[in-house]
From TrEMBL:
Any GO MF annotation of the entry: oxidoreductase activity
Organism from which the protein derives: Zizania palustris
One protein family per Pfam: NmrA
Protein name per UniProt: NmrA-like domain-containing protein
Keywords: NADP, Oxidoreductase
Cited InterPro entries: NmrA-like, NmrA-type/Isoflavone_red_sf, PCBER-like
UniProt feature coiled coil, ranges: none
PANTHER family for the chain: PINORESINOL REDUCTASE-RELATED, PINORESINOL-LARICIRESINOL REDUCTASE 3-RELATED
Residue intervals of the NmrA-like domain: 10-306
Length: 310
């Protein structure tokens, strides 16, 4: 059981704090005034002057040595917390099982946010091509629910840093300036959210009773674009028309089959977003998503993000 009387602000543990989303979660939690703790693997603590460690300590986070592979370290860390947020990569999703066991054993965590932060794994359509990517997230959801752990799932759609820097052109590291591939008819809309904003919305949920045992969907109105709209916006920014190469659904499916990893996963996300996508399911209220629930949160629009690339 918890060792001490609960402080006024929730104490937040971020697992995966040295990662890209994890670092943003730590910053957002500290900005919101929460005592914030970063579970850091021993190899980092051996180099206390390294950039990831300096940025956590300079921001004001308290480091806790631990790992998902070290169960006693998890129990000890979790026993001091009100909130646990996990931001390990999807390939490690199932490694959250000991963390869930530790949360159950500690018995004091009021909210657990597992490593999801993408499309809704129960709704996405990928025709079984994803090598278990979403199946692992669903397995973790079912374990959380069967253990009765208070939780919130964050479904934020695509991070801006993923696919958007190339204008959804896998293999490029900058947006195209001559020709552009359009997948399908180009009219299905996808949603992009900056990681720092995902983190801010995530922190808003942790003490909010409206999000208890619910999924928070992020679909900011300024960030919902089809490929046609995206290309149109980009052409205006660079003041040039691009040659359009249309890739049909059949061709994309064939490309997915033939592509090596990690390109295959990029194409699968394009297929599930820009061909099969429909990110219009909201749970807390049939109409409400994150920006409506937390209208005070400023977020980066896609238009602003593309300005940084032009
Ligand atoms: N929606 C999107 O477009 C999108 C794109 C990418 C990721 N995501 C999601 O964002 C989340 C985080 O991804 P990310 O790209 O930010 O991850 P990342 O940068 O790869 O960071 C992973 C973090 O997990 C830690 N970690 C790995 N194994 C661990 C273990 N056994 N015990 C404790 N910590 C461990 C790493 O620690 P070390 O520093 O010690 O290795 C690191 O801090 C995931 O849920 C992922 O699905 C979404």
């Amino acid at each position: 059981m918890c060792e001490e009387a609960r402080p006024r602000r929730s104490r937040v543990l971020v697992v995966g704090a040295t990662g890209r989303l994890g670092g943003n979660l730590v910053s957002a939690s500290l900005s919101a005034g929460h005592p914030t703790f970063a579970l850091v693997r021993p190899h980092h603590l051996a180099v206390p002057e390294s950039a990831p460690i300096r940025s956590l300590t300079d921001a004001g986070a308290t480091l806790i040595k631990g790992s998902l592979d070290d169960y006693p370290s998890l129990v000890e860390a979790v026993r001091q917390m009100d909130v646990v947020i996990c931001a390990v990569p999807t390939k490690k999703a199932l490694e959250q099982k000991p963390l869930i066991r530790a949360i159950k054993e500690a018995g004091c965590v009021k909210r657990f946010i597992p490593a999801e932060f993408g499309l809704d794994p129960t709704k996405v359509q990928i025709c079984g091509m994803d090598h278990g990517f979403y199946g692992k997230k669903i397995e973790i959801r079912r374990l959380i629910e069967s253990e009765g752990i208070p939780h919130t799932y964050i479904c934020c759609n695509l991070f801006m840093r993923y696919l958007l820097p190339s204008l959804v052109q896998p293999g490029l590291d900058a947006p195209p300036r001559d020709e552009v591939k359009i997948f399908g008819d180009g009219n299905t809309r996808g949603v992009f959210v900056k990681e720092a904003d995902v983190a801010k919305f995530t922190i808003c949920t942790i003490e909010d009773p409206r999000t208890l045992n619910k999924t928070l969907y992020l679909r900011p109105s300024g960030n919902v674009y089809s490929m046609n709209e995206l290309v149109d916006l980009w052409e205006k920014k660079i003041n040039k028309f691009l040659k359009k190469i249309h890739i049909t659904e059949e061709q994309l499916l064939k490309n997915i089959q033939d592509a090596p990893l990690p390109l295959k996963m990029d194409l699968i996300f394009i297929y599930s977003t820009f061909i099969k996508g429909d990110q219009t399911y909201f749970e807390i209220d049939s109409r409400i998503e994150g920006t409506q629930l937390y209208p005070h949160v400023n977020y980066t629009t896609l238009n602003e993000y593309l300005d940084t690339l032009a």
